[in-house]
Amino acid sequence: MDRVILHCDANSFYASVECLYHPELRDRPVAVSGDAQARHGIILTKNQLAKRFGVKTGEAIWQAKQKCPELVCLPPDFSLYVRFSQKMRRIYEQYSPRVESFGLDEAWIDLSNPGVSFADGVRTAGELRARIREELGITVSVGVSFNKIFAKLGSDMKKPDATTAIPRDRFREIVWPLPVGELLFVGPSTRRRLARLNVTTIGDLARCDPALLQRHLGKNGLLLCAYANGEDVSPVMPADERMAIKSIGNSTTPPHDLTCEDDARCIFTLLAESVAARLRAEGLRARCVSISARTTDLVTGSCQCMLARPTSLTGEIAQAALRLFDGRFSGHFPYRSVGLNCSHLTPDDMPVQLDFTGDEERRMHMEQLERSIDDLRRRFGHQVVQRGIVLRDAECARINPVEDHTIHPVPFYAG
Amino acid sequence: MPERRESDRKIYVKVRADFTLDGRIIPLMLRPEDGPACRIDRILDVREASSLKAGGQGSRYTCRVGERTVLLFHDEPYWFIEGE
């Protein structure tokens, strides 16, 4: 029996919530944008009216205002959006326990059950849309299909507040004529590579020789070909079964560019502190540290290294990050933003091979010390204890990477 | 604490309420910042709803206040009614 999967996508989510709370702005072009003073001045989302003026997500506020001088830019209120996201999820969970969030504004719902037909799925989609419109005052577009990929594709096809059904017996006529870039995981780079193989629509991809795709795109080629043929079998992860965390990372665009090694040392220490604190909070240790840096021309580079022992210590993570930075990036200042990511995670109660150098005791002491700092910060606020190195830069010392905007879409791939 | 979101047709109110043993909140009186207190005679309906008019969302209590029906919203942690 085919599955019945819904994908719900809240239309212009941040902007819709803002317009709900600002009735006077509802008939005007509105965008939610980052803080221009803190150099995060890009459009995060825009309403339908702003869209009509050609305002795009990710562009700078000044670019958007050139296209639409009357554009009203509002600062984001992430705690409000998180609340709305939770409310949406509570509604979804009334229909099925198998709800998988994808960011704050999207979710898959697996309605499959004996006796639930595809038509029931379409009916539920309509009911969900009406409930979210009336109860939350925003709108969602829903895709109904027999797998997650097509359900997601469906929710993108008609906006706002619409249902798109892609049943198995009609997916070729609905999906195949669409540009291949519409498919989840086909980004600009994959699209360009596919174009070189004369693959421009999803249908082209479906009919393409899998061996050829594998040669050019590796394993991903086979995966995308299967998706195009409606063969995605990935499950919707049940609500109470959190996906294992694959990595923990933080990136930041500091208030001013990084122009010297001391700046880099300060920011990477801050990021390492935040990442290490989150590792400890999750009961994890990491074996791999990777960093990324973006120049003022917006060119991004990244590199990674393996650690000898899994760690959740700020010092060890910061040291690894700075070694990587010195090796790859230090000659090319200035940098606009940097990121630090820890992966190859293991539980912190997993036995580790000790060595004879005998610094394990020191590491344990460090961990106890850092846990005490975590506790102090939890009780009295992040700024209550600070490292000396971050005090050399008053602006950076105010950054709190743990709490300043950490919203992580759950990764799609299972396993 | 989330910020209060003002709008022209939104009137924040003080509320006196019963917190029942089963976790429900039953508003008994409401009072706008610069107005008289009004007794809520009856609650006709409670549901999650948005207020497009005032701009907000939360638990909506449809209340009988004298001869009038008042929509009272609990947009946590604030309470508001829709203005004219």
Biggest sheet of chain A, strands in spatial order? 5-6-1-7-8
Fraction in beta strands of chain A: 15-25%
Order of helices and strands of chain B: EEEEEEE
Mean pLDDT of chain A: 88
| Helix percentage range of chain B | under 10%
What does this structure look like?
The complex is a heterodimer of chains A (415) and B (84). Residues 405-411 of chain A have low confidence and may be disordered. By secondary structure, chain A is of the alpha+beta class. Helix content of chain A is 40%, strand content 19%. Chain A has a five-stranded mixed beta sheet with strand order 5-6-1-7-8. In chain A, strands 9-12-10-11 form a four-stranded antiparallel beta sheet, with helices on one face. Chain A has a three-stranded mixed beta sheet with strand order 3-2-4. Among the domains of chain A are: 1-148, Alpha-Beta Plaits (2-Layer Sandwich), CATH 3.30.70.270; 247-350 and 360-397, DNA polymerase, Y-family, little finger domain (Dna Ligase, domain 1), CATH 3.30.1490. Chain B is an all-beta fold. The model of chain B has no long low-confidence stretch (mean pLDDT 93). Classes of the chains: A alpha+beta (415), B mainly beta (84). The A-B interface holds A 20-24, 77, 79-80, 84, 87, 134-138 and B 2-3, 5, 7-9, 47-57.
Please outline what is shown here:
The complex is a heterodimer of chains A (415) and B (84). With 415 residues, chain A is α+β, with helices and mostly antiparallel strands.
What are the key terms here?
heterodimer, A: 415 residues, alpha+beta, Alpha-Beta Plaits, Dna Ligase, domain 1, five-stranded mixed sheet, 15 helices, 12 strands, 19% strand, B: 84 residues, mainly beta, seven-stranded antiparallel sheet, 7 strands
Topology (elements, then pairings):
The complex is a heterodimer of chains A (415) and B (84).
Chain A: E1 5-10, H1 13-21, E2 30-33, E3 43-46, H2 48-52, H3 61-67, E4 72-74, H4 78-92, E5 99-102, E6 106-110, H5 118-136, E7 140-145, H6 148-157, E8 163-166, H7 171-175, H8 188-196, H9 202-207, H10 210-217, H11 219-228, E9 247-252, H12 261-282, E10 284-295, E11 300-311, H13 314-328, E12 335-347, H14 360-380, H15 394-397
Parallel strand pairs in A: 2-4, 7-8
Antiparallel strand pairs in A: 1-6, 1-7, 2-3, 5-6, 9-12, 10-11, 10-12
Helix pairs in contact in A: 4-5, 10-11, 12-13
Chain B: E1 10-19, E2 25-32, E3 38-39, E4 42-51, E5 56-65, E6 68-75, E7 78-82
Antiparallel strand pairs in B: 1-2, 1-7, 2-3, 4-5, 5-6, 6-7
